[in-house]
Amino acid sequence: MTRSLLLLLGVGSCVFASAQAFSVYELRSEPALDARGIKFLHATVHAIDDHGQAWVYEDRIKVRLHDDVNLESTLEALSQATGTTFTLVHSVVGGERSTAPEPPPGFPVPHHTGNIAQDAADDTAAKQAWREANPELYQEYLESLRQRTPASR
User: Fold this and answer.
1) Are residues 53 and 91 in contact, defined by beta-carbon separation less than 8 angstroms?
2) Is the dihedral angle over the CA atoms 122, 57, 78, 43 positive or is it negative?
3) Contact criterion met (CB below 8 Å) for 129 and 106
């Protein structure tokens, strides 16, 4: 299954590479998406980026988007649409695999009570409150996400 995913990603990259640069993000969902969540994930990815693509393998998701699509707002949109918390595992930008930087001190950690919709709303509200209380740290964190460093192989 992984091999077919890599082939699919390779073919997709060739089709669109000449038009505009793309990034591929590997995300982890908590909890794993059900059929309804997968449907909303695909609909949201396509609403954000007409040429965006997503692949789901249990709790792992790969999303391919134009480089000019904002990752933070994409993760928030996906969380709101699916009621699931997404964590960036790593990304591939311009052929370089990179890891996500550690969140800043005090950055809200998702809490799971079993009420998916309420958990997502609480997580979004906590992140918004943290951003408003820590604008400098938030900007530094966004910059570190934009300047991901290649992971050691």
Assistant:
1) no
2) negative
3) no
Q: What does pTM read for this prediction?
A: 0.52
| CA atoms within 13 A of residue 34's CA, in its CB half-sphere | 3
Q: What is the reported pLDDT for 45?
A: 92
Render pLDDT for 53-99 as a digit per residue (tens, 0 to 9).
899 987 789 998 887 788 888 899 999 999 888 888 888 765 555 56
Q: H/E/C letters for each residue in the chain?
A: CHHHHHHHHHHHHHHHHCCCCEEEEEEEEECCCCHHHHHHHHHHHHHHCCCCEEEEECCEEEEEEECCCCHHHHHHHHHHHHCCEEEEEEEEECCEEEECCCCCCCCCCCCCCCCHHHHHHHHHHHHHHHHHHCHHHHHHHHHHHHCCCECCC
Residue written as token pair 């073919």: 11
